[in-house]
Amino acid sequence: MSIRDIAEAFAQLCKDGRHEEAGERFWAESVVSREAMEGPMAVITGRAAVKAKSDWWYANHTVHEVTTEGPFIHGDQFALRFSMDITARESGQRIRATEIGLYTVADGKVVEERFFY
Fold it and tell me: Which of these, 22, 96, 39, 86, lies nearest to 58 by C-alpha position?
């Protein structure tokens, strides 16, 4: 698959609300996930650990709506823009946020995801 094929398939899964499936299909075994924060989830390595981070996020947030724009492709990378309307379960605070996901692809798999917010 070309970078365009991967980016478009990944983006379409996200647009369809199938974010977990996008990861399952495209993450490399040694994928690295980088968040724009400090702390234990700032850098996560490995498919199982990144899935666990994703599972934690969904368990701790109520998702009202997520829209996905893109992909925006450059070389071996593509970006997606996410607009989210969520409620943090612990605080009950409703949050509207925008996030950019930058994905690096090698050998047909996402080897790094980096989030900007």
Answer: 86
Q: Record the tokens describing residue 91, joined without a space.
A: 């605080």
Q: Which residue has the tokens 């109520």?
A: 62
Q: What is the pLDDT of residue 78?
A: 98
Distance CA 114, CA 92 (A): 27
**Radius of gyration for the alpha carbons in the chain, expressed in angstroms and rounded:** 14
> What is the rounded distance in angstroms from the CA atom of residue 13 to the CA atom of residue 108?
16
List the domains of the chain with CATH numbers: 3-116 (3.10.450.50)
Q: Is the pTM of this model over 0.70?
A: yes
pLDDT in tens, 70-116: 999 999 999 999 999 999 999 999 999 999 999 999 999 999 999 99
- Do 31 and 110 contact (CB within 8 A), yes or no? yes
- Sequence-distant (6+) residues with CB within 8 A of 64 are 85, 86, 87, 94
Q: 41 and 34 in contact (C-beta within 8 Å)?
A: no
